[in-house]
Design brief:
It is a single chain. The chain contains ten helices and two strands. The protein has about 210 residues and is mostly helical. The protein has two domains: about 70 residues, Arc Repressor Mutant, subunit A (Orthogonal Bundle); about 130 residues. Helix 1 crosses helix 4. The radius of gyration is 19 Å and the shape is elongated.
Length: about 210
């Protein structure tokens, strides 16, 4: 079968199965995106290998051909989710020169990926819950490093305090909107972020 994956809004994949030759890379990515939704909705422990195979419309034998076990899926999924964000982030800031343009691009990027990022945060929470069973400390450190590199590319700064602030700010904003919904205005809070960072950059990196 040829697995065709179309990237659609909020970084989701739509999987179309056709009776042709298998594209192994697309098949692997398709399985991971199915797992992304399953793990985010139900949690790692609640999802079985059979559940994954059924949702991905493949046999368990096919699943084990691509991944050694459920833990291997978990690790591959975590890295893929962050890499998707990083690749799109680089494209969105290409050619932008001013701090204002880059910050506005960053805000637009986060807003456009809000639903996907909520799922990512639920996944990260699951990483933390499973840290003793899955030995995720190295993986979590690797993901954190990648996320900070993504932010550095947006704000055009290697200042670790500013990078940490940016990561904490938007993770907090997304978490609040996940809990409280539309009563938290993304645009108003994000506009304050831009002003604060601009002032910081003017004062510390002029």
């Amino acid at each position: 079968m040829n697995l065709k994956i179309h990237f659609i809004s909020n970084a989701r994949y739509k999987i179309n199965l056709m009776p042709k030759i298998v594209n192994h890379q697309e098949m692997r990515q398709g399985i991971l995106m199915v797992c992304f939704e399953l793990f985010a909705k139900r949690g790692y422990e609640a999802v079985s290998v059979k559940d994954i195979a059924k949702a991905a419309e493949v046999s368990t034998g096919t699943l084990y051909h691509y991944f050694k076990n459920k833990q291997a899926i978990f690790h591959a999924l975590a890295e893929m989710a962050v890499d998707l964000d990083i690749n799109d982030a680089k494209e969105s800031v290409a050619g932008l020169k001013t701090n204002r343009d880059r910050l506005e691009s960053y805000v637009s990027f986060v807003k456009s990926r809000e639903e996907f990022m909520i799922a990512e945060m639920l996944l990260i929470t699951d990483f933390y819950r499973q840290r003793e069973v899955l030995d995720n400390s190295e993986l979590i450190a690797k993901i954190g490093k990648k996320m900070k590199a993504q932010i550095a590319s947006f704000i055009n700064s290697e200042n670790q305090e500013l990078i940490d602030f940016s990561l904490s700010f938007f993770m907090g904003l997304i978490m609040q909107r996940m809990v409280f919904g539309q009563e938290i205005s993304f645009d108003k809070v994000a506009a304050m972020y831009i002003k604060l960072v601009e002032l910081y950059l003017e004062k510390n990196e002029s």
